[in-house]
């Protein structure tokens, strides 16, 4: 009797074993949306050079149902980062029959609406032992410094054996500089978000006090942001402080002329150029970018997009007092009756400096108006309604009871009175034109006289 029971148990165990393996193999990436990067042209790379041994023996290799023991073996795999241009992934593997298919699959670590696994087809010559390589050209990706990418290889031979390596992480670090780092002291604990490592500053020029001052400014800025607007970091933020704008541009594949700092919202990474000699300017610029990043984290979603005046206005509000030259530009626009409409300020600002300055100054003033007159709770409501994909008009009406035109009118009503007090409004443009013409005439005469004097003195 006991013998029969043992036999039945053994039979059941044997029968259940293959189905267990089959169950394991069903854990695949099939439910993950994929897009293919296509095969990239291989770079002339000395094989084995700078190669990292990536197989950690403590990590089990995932196997598929068709895999037979030792059919495909990994000899080495690694990645070489050539910042900011490319990352070169390499793999050496062997099998009993020819290896005919080698692909690199990877997932970029960033905030996203859906899991996306990308695929690169490695270049190699089919054989029982292969050396494969896939070059990720960053012109197609634009990864910021410090971005992390999880990757793994899939391999197939002519017998139909397949193999998938354990996931590894590639850090796209800018190794051209010797970075030091400073992490915030953990003051964010009370927000019940990420504790301790919420903020990290990386820098390579300037002493410890330079980084400490920047960190203090960021911490104060985040506290102010929480108090004034109610938003706070949802993921740890890393800030790369380049020693100059030129160095920063060198870290970008397609740098733009005006780039002084970039908030890579989805990566929770900021890259900015701050020479130690320009610390006070740098503090403002860093807080500005940090605020963009935190506000974008709070409003991240597939539907919502902030109007530019709100996005820039919040960043400028958190910088502190409006800079004097922007204040005077705003006052001039008020007195000249040349304010830009709130509707126009929803789109990206003009590239023309004078109009851009006015756009920033007005954005600051609009956000100050909303916060001063309607408070922080409503601002937070506005951000969360915009995140859900409401139109700008609907979101404003829901929260404040007026749309963009209403905001425009209400805000203008709080600005200082007529430009030339006591004179009828209809007369003002005419008077300003006449005065303007007079002033221009005087200025031209003055410049001409000066030039004449210089020329005569040069003689
Ligand atoms: Zn900005």
What would you say this structure looks like, in words?
By secondary structure, the chain is α+β, with helices and mostly antiparallel strands. It has 3 domains: 29-172, Immunoglobulins (Immunoglobulin-like); 177-298, Glutaredoxin, CATH 3.40.30.160; 304-422, no CATH class. Helices cover 39% and strands 21% of the residues. It has 10 helices and 13 strands. Strands 1, 2, 3, 4, 5, 6, 7 and 8 form an 8-stranded mixed sheet that branches. The chain has a 5-stranded mixed sheet with strand order 9-10-11-13-12. Strand 3 and strand 4 (116-121) form a beta hairpin. Helix 5 crosses helix 7. The longest helix has 35 residues, at 353-387. It is elongated, with a radius of gyration of 30 Å. Mean pLDDT is 79; it is low at 1-68 and 418-459. The site of zinc ion has 4 residues, from helix 4 and helix 5.
């Amino acid at each position: 009797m006991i013998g029969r029971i043992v036999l039945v148990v053994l039979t059941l165990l044997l029968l259940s074993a293959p189905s267990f393996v089959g169950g394991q193999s069903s854990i695949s990436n099939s439910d993950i949306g994929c897009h293919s990067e296509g095969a990239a042209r291989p770079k002339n790379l000395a094989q084995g050079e700078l190669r990292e041994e990536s197989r950690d023996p403590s990590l089990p290799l995932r196997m598929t149902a068709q895999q037979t023991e030792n059919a495909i073996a990994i000899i080495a795999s690694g990645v070489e980062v050539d910042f900011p241009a490319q990352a070169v992934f390499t793999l050496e593997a062997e099998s009993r029959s020819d290896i005919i298919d080698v692909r690199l699959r990877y997932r970029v670590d960033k905030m996203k609406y859906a899991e996306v696994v990308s695929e690169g087809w490695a270049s190699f010559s089919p054989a029982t032992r292969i050396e494969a390589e896939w070059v990720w050209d960053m012109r197609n990706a634009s990864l910021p410094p410090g971005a992390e990418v999880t990757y793994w290889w899939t391999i197939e031979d002519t017998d139909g054996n397949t193999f998938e390596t354990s996931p590894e992480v590639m850090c796209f670090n800018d190794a051209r500089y010797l970075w030091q780092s400073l992490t915030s002291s953990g003051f964010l604990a009370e927000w019940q978000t990420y504790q301790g490592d919420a903020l990290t500053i990386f820098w390579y020029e300037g002493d410890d006090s330079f980084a400490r001052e920047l960190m203090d400014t960021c911490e104060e800025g985040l506290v102010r942001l929480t108090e004034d607007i109610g938003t706070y970091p949802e993921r740890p933020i890393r800030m790369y402080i380049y020693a100059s704008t030129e160095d920063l541009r060198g870290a970008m594949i397609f740098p733009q002329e005006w780039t002084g700092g970039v908030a890579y919202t989805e990566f929770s990474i900021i890259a900015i150029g701050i020479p130690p000699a320009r610390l006070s300017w740098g503090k403002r610029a860093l807080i500005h970018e940090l605020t963009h990043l935190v506000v974008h984290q709070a409003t991240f979603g597939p539907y919502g997009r902030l109007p530019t005046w709100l996005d820039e206005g919040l960043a400028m509000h958190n910088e502190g007092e409006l800079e004097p030259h922007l204040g005077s530009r705003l006052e001039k626009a008020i007195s000249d009756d040349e304010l830009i409409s709130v509707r126009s300020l929803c789109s990206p600002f003009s590239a023309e400096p004078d109009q851009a300055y006015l756009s920033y100054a007005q954005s600051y003033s609009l956000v100050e108006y909303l916060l001063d007159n309607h408070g922080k709770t409503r601002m937070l409501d506005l951000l969360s309604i915009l995140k859900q994909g409401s139109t700008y008009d609907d979101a404003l009406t829901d929260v404040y009871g007026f749309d963009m035109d209403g905001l425009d009118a209400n805000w203008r009503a709080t600005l200082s009175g007529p430009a030339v007090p006591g004179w009828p409004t209809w007369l003002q443009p005419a008077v300003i034109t006449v005065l303007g013409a007079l002033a221009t005439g005087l200025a031209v005469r003055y410049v001409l006289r000066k030039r004449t004097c210089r020329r005569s003195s040069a003689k």
